[in-house]
Amino acid sequence: MEEANKTVVSEFIFQGLCTSRELQIFLLMPFSALYLMTVIGNLFVVILIIIDRHLHSPMYFLLAHLSFIDFCLSSVTTPKLTTDLLKGNKTISFGGCMSQILCVHFFGGGEMVLLVTMAYDRYVAICRPLHYTSIMDTQKCIWLVLISWIIGFVHAISQLILILELPFCGPRVIDSFFCDIPLVMKLACVNTDTLGIVISADSGVLATSCFILLLISYTYILLTVQLHSKDGSSKALSTCTSHIIVVVLFFGPCIFIYLWPVSITWVDKFLAVFYTVITPLLNPAIYTLRNKDIKNAVKKLKKSQVNLEIIFRHLF
């Protein structure tokens, strides 16, 4: 009898972003274009940093990992969202749903910690410039990135284990476009109020702690920048501004979704689209448009392509 009360739901059904068939067809091209731009933009940043030796510094090493995480985070939800816009019956297997939960929290948690690491890198570069190369050496950078991946994985596994313990034996309609923990918990056949508090506390503590650390770090950095000369502080201020924009865009929706006591469906959907679809696209754009080193690397790449074209024309 106890086994019979365990999970019997083999798949879940997504309601998607909206119920209008016409609007779903209309949204197909924009979301497809957004995902394509996200993939190209983030992978371009990663490849550019790898091939340009002038970008082989701790800041760009961390930026390459941020772009890779954004690519992965977007790939967890956006392809499924896009293909479901063509379907009347939007389903996902139980295993697929649990995998989405694991990956979203893995990459999301890892990105939170990585953003803190990037803030630490800027703190050392601006507040302790003479010791920067000794503090942010290659080994330490690798360890900092590994720690962000490990914390993200531990966070995701802890969330998934709590969800897997729940019995799902009845309702299976999720009012969203991907499996998010608060929505999946509503479908369980037991009272999940206490569990909801535990899970929200887990996600909330990680997000809020990282966000507070980032606020403290960048406040201290900006105060330090004011004490330096204008020539030395302009580049640092520009870099920090880019980081702060990314932090606000990423943490704002996450904190709102997991800590705001009142759940409004359309608001939650909009914020979910924002941090899983829009933010991974904005990150490479923000860093590329505001970063002179990246711009110079792109110009060099264009020149090398032109030179290669000239050589091939002469050869063939």
UniProtKB/TrEMBL annotation:
Residues 41-287 form the G-protein coupled receptors family 1 profile domain. Its main location: membrane. The keyword Chaperone does not apply. The chain crosses the membrane at residues 25-51, 58-78, 98-120, 141-164, 204-223, 244-264, 270-289. The keyword Transmembrane applies. It is a multi-pass membrane protein. It is found in: Cell membrane; Membrane. Pfam families: 7tm_4. Keywords: Cell membrane, G-protein coupled receptor, Membrane, Olfaction, Receptor, Sensory transduction, Transducer, Transmembrane, Transmembrane helix. PROSITE patterns: G_PROTEIN_RECEP_F1_1, G_PROTEIN_RECEP_F1_2. Belongs to the G-protein coupled receptor 1 family. This is Olfactory receptor. The lineage of its organism: Eukaryota, Metazoa, Chordata, Craniata, Vertebrata.
